[in-house]
Amino acid sequence: MAIDSKVVAQVAHLARLKVDPQDSDALSNRLNDILAMVDQLQQADVDGVAPLAHPLDVTQPLRDDVVTEPNIRDKALEIAPAAEDGCFLVPRVIE
Amino acid sequence: MHTKTLTELKAGLANRDFSSRELTEHFLARIQQYDGDLNSFVTVTDTQALAQADAADAAIAAGKAGLLTGLPIAHKDIFCTEGVRTSCGSKMLDNFIAPYTATVVEKMAAEGAVMLGKTNMDEFAMGSSNETSYYGPVKNPWDLERVPGGSSGGAAACLGARLAPGATGTDTGGSIRQPAALNNITGLKPTYGRVSRWGMIAFASSLDQAGPMAQSAEDCALMLQAMAGHDHRDSTSLNEKVGDYLGALKDDISGLTIGIPEEFFPDTLDGAIADNSRDAIRELEKLGAKVVSVSLPSIKLSVPAYYVIAPAEASANLSRFDGVRFGHRCDDPQDLEDLYKRSRSEGFGDEVKRRILVGAYALSAGYYDAYYRRAQQVRRLIRDDFARAFEKVDVLMGPTAPETAFKLGAKKDDPVSMYMADVFTIGVNLAGLPALSMPTGFINGLPTGTQIIGNYFREGQILNVAHKYQQATDWHKQAPAFGGAQ
Amino acid sequence: MSWEVVIGLEVHVQLNTASKLFSGSKLSTGAEPNTQASLVDLGLPGTLPVVNREAVRKAALFGLAINADICRHSVFERKNYFYPDLPKGYQTTQLAEPIVGAGVVEIQLESGEKKNVRIHHAHLEEDAGKSLHEDFHGMTGIDLNRAGTPLIEVVSEPDMANAEEAVTFARKLHAIVTSIGICDGDMSQGNMRFDVNISVRKPGEPLGTRTETKNLNSFRFMEKAIALEVERQIDVLEDGGEIVQETRLYNGDTHTARSMRSKEDANDYRYFPCPDLLPVAITDADIEELKAAMPELPDSRKARFINDYQLSEYDADLLSGSIATAAFFEAAAKAGGDAKLAANWVMGELAAKLNAEEKDIAGSPVSAEQLGQLIARLKDGTISSKIAKQVFEACWAGEGNPDDIIEAKGLKQMSDTGELEKIVDDIIANNAAQVDDYRNSDDAKKKKKIGFFVGQAMKATQGKANPQQLNKLLQEKLQ
Description:
heterotrimer, A: two-stranded antiparallel ribbon, 3 strands, C: Arc Repressor Mutant, subunit A, three-stranded antiparallel sheet
């Protein structure tokens, strides 16, 4: 399943990555190399095999419903690239 | 002092042959002197290290020493450390100081470990050569023109050069074992869920596992004893009793059954690599182990399955790096789209971007079944192959990596050939099994390693096997000429 | 030919746990921005989620309340998209294996007709933070206090045919979640938010293209938004146009809606199982335990009201619809000793007053006990129903308990025949012309003309005369 620059652009948009037009072909080629390798998966006989998301068959431990976390706003805002009035700042969001 | 193992240093501290401060100063001086050439550290934490060393000396004097009291340890720069930058080898986190500390780091500190600093790594642990780091490649101390492997390349190189006696690493597809093999050290990837992932920056959550790296299996046992255990903050960490890893080293291995998967010795494998591992296995036979041949038919699909699953998980794990709350943010974003796209494109390197794109593609509408779902099905086949093998054998063995350290830049433009560096290690991550790489000799002056894979939670057993081997041989004691390591 | 309307609802129900779905942060109620956002909620690198047991319990309880299958191994997935109030760049939610499977909710319409609305499924998920647009000089501020708040999203089948059905269903869901105590149900705080999927078609034709009107947070707005959208779609189709599948935003203040263009570019959410979380197991024993602990549901409460209090089905439906109203009614009925009177007062005077002052029954200035006392005095003849309204007003105004008000204002009914007889005699003596007129009228006219004398008597007694007694006395004396 080969991909071209157009598909790369679509996927890059989904992943919010910028692809410079002059790099696009080279990137497509690299990705196609990887996908060609990955396509070996199509040989596998997986009929009736359940997907395995986790190596161990265990279930989710549950947490008691208690408040344990302190207010860390000052620490959090200190490492934020842009903050004001206790909030993280981003360019205006238009809904 | 720097040629000694952690175990020997621990005895020396107990005997008051030297203080933790002396020890720490010695390693800090070596880092200062030699790491310019090696580039194995991203950050050296002199001041904190000396403070911790003084506290350790006080604890020893008071008779309150823990498992690791006074022993200098280097942490991979993937573990969050409050107050000290955690870069994950990325420009994205060049300015990131986590407001909290990883469980692994906390547990080791609680046992008295002294943190020397944070080691260099492939960016976001994506790589097998340490060339994807924003902080430049790490050099292999056995040959400065060669790579140290990756992604825990900084950890392996600083251990190989004896700039630190113990280091933490993480292993998603071989990132502890492959660099261990390439630098003549011992490294263990524990069972998935044995060591907490809290505070360890995620690459592929269902594969990532932290583990110890050191000169010997005995040292790894000592470190694992401090690192392992259930963590209520990590849902995937298992509530399974921590073994007595140091105690297990004494077990007799006569009667042990070693399985040799034929798939680990394909016709295409370099004969010298194959011979090296076969020699190591023969050594264990001499110690009373039995050897049988086994087959893992689906393991040939482990690399393709991995290169769907790991990028898919990574594509989501790395979405939080968006320039909003922490990390790199582009200058003067014009709008939200621009903020995201420029911050991420400037902050991530090429390999990380490639993997995000592959992962997003594999999960996208219309491709999920052909890629992601199928890869997870193959993952089950691989796990079942291992399970069948472990019905007959105690451990599995084979080469850790298909080749010794390659030249810097040799595979830079060929991602797929780079991915093959982990061909023997990746299956273990997909199955979640524990595995160790130990030094088993040299090919053309470059170290090579052999992998011992155990059943779930049998870290004690594989450490035991490696320890017996290391008692009978001295490959692991060899050090490079670089930096007066010998 | 007329149009057929097809409506389906997606309802976000905020669970009233103490802490968040995946972290030990307090659930925010008007806290300063980002003061209740922990390491996990901020999506800091290296942090990991752990599931809140109580959230799972509450979601499963809801499933049992709507007779749904509970998934024994439900799976959390990641829904990937970028938005500044979504800190991890994905929402942790459920898709392929949600905790609550198919179920059904019965609604009763005003006509008395009953209808089943099928529930497709309900899943657990985390809420996002908030984007604040004011006071950031052209920028947007991000507050993550709400991020990670546990929600269940209830997805109905497109089983509703008009706004009344949709609103009745929404109210019924509100009644269920508040009755079983999993949600506070405060609509003004966004405890329940509705997304409405609407399409229209000619009878017998396949389903039309649907639009989704998002984030309606009151029943009234929901009703108006549906009417507006149905009208728009019919207009478009009748003008020969086509309906575009889109998300629309309703503005309650202006009663207008618009397309949300920024979300239009077809998103590909790339769902996959969250590798940081394991399947959530629910055992048979868990389910038995939940069933045993199930609080009274609105339907059984309604049946009980009909049975125990002899209420009409309509009254019982209204009073059992909200747990707060039901509790108020029962307390008032108990204190007053008369369920029918209590029902009338709660649905009549009290409801009107609450409505006029936009108050919740929980915040009613007249307590259930006070209303009960008022009813008791009405029932034992101490006051007339007219005086009762006056006492109610005074009680509402905070002048004290009904007994104290009656006492202080001297509002007791005049039931002493001797005193009343004297007043009636005076009126007859002073109004000879009206008395003659009355006596010369036929029976039908007499009935009307007696009103004059009643009025005079009430005036003289300041309304305290017992009306039955007064009538009887007047009829006797005027013969």
